[in-house]
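Format is sequence with structure; example below:
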Amino acid sequence: MFKNVAIVGANRYVHKFKLASGSIVTVATTKASYHSLSITKSTTNTIDFYFIGGVDAYTLPAIHEWLSLTDPQQSKVAVYWSNEDAYALCGSKDALSEIKDIKDISFPISRAKTTKKFKCPMQYLIKDQHFFIDIYHPELDILSEDIVEVIISAVRKELDVYGVKISHPKFAKGHLLIQRIGLKYSEVGRVAQDGNRAFLLLHLNTDISKFLSPLLPLARIRDIVVIPKSGICDSNSEITMDISERIASNVTKSLGLSSQRKELGSSQEQKIIEYKPIFSSENWTLHSKLDNRIGFSIERKDEKKKEIIGCHNY
């Protein structure tokens, strides 16, 4: 159950929705900086908190998929990052639309599966200098806009302590997180909601020069001139990876869920390992397509059919 949470600010707006299951959902929004959600009935009143830490690039999308496929009635949040330099994509964008020559790529390409038709541009993951906060809740899809605001508010609440200010421009469909240092604006992360999942990518330090030479000129111009990249440590060098756990904790508190700290068991680790070949194939990493030889079928509760994990109906 999402519990009622007080919302800061005088301008408060309340919207109620009734689910097919009979659950009454109350969404309260405000013009204040910090946002919270309230659901009066749900399938779960707790959220399992996994602080996974650094993993290789192909394990990133395997964890993302595992969160929703394992015990789908249980809410989960996971904190993790790549322990190697890597390119990252989210959704269906073909990697070759940004790469000049695939033979020049010296880092792995990690691609997360999405249900929405995201076509996010290439991202750059510097070893141990970024983190993902990945959230799953079985009824999150009816609160799409608000969960993004909850995540952004949790980030701002923690960054305020360090004097770091971020903005969330709507021109980029609400995905970009922008920081201002002096008169310069730069991208420090991304946030998005995808069905019953939501995720945050936030960079600590970002020197993307080693990633750029294999890319096409337009991609380089975009990431150097149009929307340059930076990390939150550029604003305050005292920030460490510990901030990831505190931001995740802020999110769970705002959701009103009781957080349960969990460790991955051997069976859970094995399941993630089983997913890795699916997300490391060249067809998947480059083209968002799967080789059926390594795919397998699952039953989606919201679709009256089976699908191969990772395939998109575009």
Residues 144-160 form the longest helix (17 residues). The chain has seven helices and 16 strands. Residues 36 and 110 are 32 Å apart (CA to CA). The mean pLDDT is 79.
